[in-house]
Write a structure and sequence with these properties.
This protein is an alpha/beta fold. The protein has a single domain (about 1-200), classed as NAD(P)-binding Rossmann-like Domain (Rossmann fold, 3-Layer(aba) Sandwich). The protein has helices at about 10-20, 35-40, 50-55, 65-75, 105-115, 130-135, 155-165, 180-195; strands spanning about 1-5, 25-30, 45-50, 60-65, 85, 120, 135-140, 140-145, 145-150, 170. The strands form 2 sheets. It has an 8-stranded mixed β-sheet, sandwiched between helices. Strand 9, helix 7 and strand 10 form a beta-alpha-beta unit. The longest helix is centred in the last third of the chain and has 17 residues, at about 180-195. The two termini are about 30 Å apart. Keywords: Oxidoreductase. This is NADPH-dependent F420 reductase. InterPro entries: NAD(P)-bd_dom_sf (IPR036291), P5C_Rdtase_cat_N (IPR028939), STEAP_metalloreductase (IPR051267).
Length: about 210
């Protein structure tokens, strides 16, 4: 699959690592072109391109910027009509210990509203960058879950295919409005992992019999 990763921070770099390892053709782009190039150079199967060129052949775009930069960064890619976008952002406060949106809307809904031509799916926002980079195996046969919320079945299926191909357990979280629940869940993860000092292994998993 042709996948564009928008953002070269910890999450963006972890996505490039795992997606190329899984055999996808990956383009990474970021506001800092040098940083994007450095990420691409570390992984066979990845290339770095300027934003205006990065999404032309993309089947899926992974939005790995901060929420505050998300809409402008997506618009910088050019025409995204009909493109599938996996939104991994969380609307965090400056200290990462709170959310700037919630209850009546979500980051995902705001992005979709600002860019009505895209097919957006919320996903991977509850997964720490360290967990993504290390892989989805929790040990004991348990895998890290990825929750997917979208009003587009096509977008959800694309994200499901990617997540399962990386080894994650996928949980269908319903329509896009349920991002209102997933983003606070990510906020709880961040508080427990960093605010309470419990580490990134605290990320919740849902256990099932069989």
């Amino acid at each position: 699959m042709n996948i564009t990763v928008l953002g070269a921070g910890n999450m963006g770099a972890a996505f490039v690592q795992q997606l190329t390892r899984a055999g996808h053709r990956v383009t990474v782009t970021a506001r800092d072109a040098a940083k994007a190039a450095q990420v691409a150079e570390r992984h066979v199967g990845a290339q770095a391109l300027p934003p205006a060129e990065a999404a032309r052949d993309a089947e899926v775009i992974v939005l790995a910027t901060g929420y505050a930069d998300a809409v402008a960064a997506l618009r910088g890619l050019g025409d995204l009509q009909g493109k599938v976008v996996i939104d991994i952002t969380n609307p965090l406060t400056a200290d990462y210990m709170g959310l700037t949106l919630g209850h009546s809307t979500s980051a995902a809904e705001q992005i979709a509203q600002a860019l009505p031509g895209i097919e957006l799916v919320k996903g991977f926002n509850t997964v720490f960058a360290q967990v993504l980079a290390e892989g989805p195996d929790f040990g004991g046969g348990q895998r890290v879950p990825v929750f997917l919320a979208s009003d587009s079945e096509r977008a959800k299926q694309a994200a499901r295919t990617i997540a399962q191909g990386l080894g994650f357990h996928v949980v269908d979280a319903g329509g896009l409005k349920n991002a209102r629940y997933l983003e606070p869940l990510a906020g709880l993860n961040i508080y427990l992992g960093y605010g309470a000092g419990l580490g990134t292994a605290i990320a919740p998993t849902w256990l099932r019999k069989g």
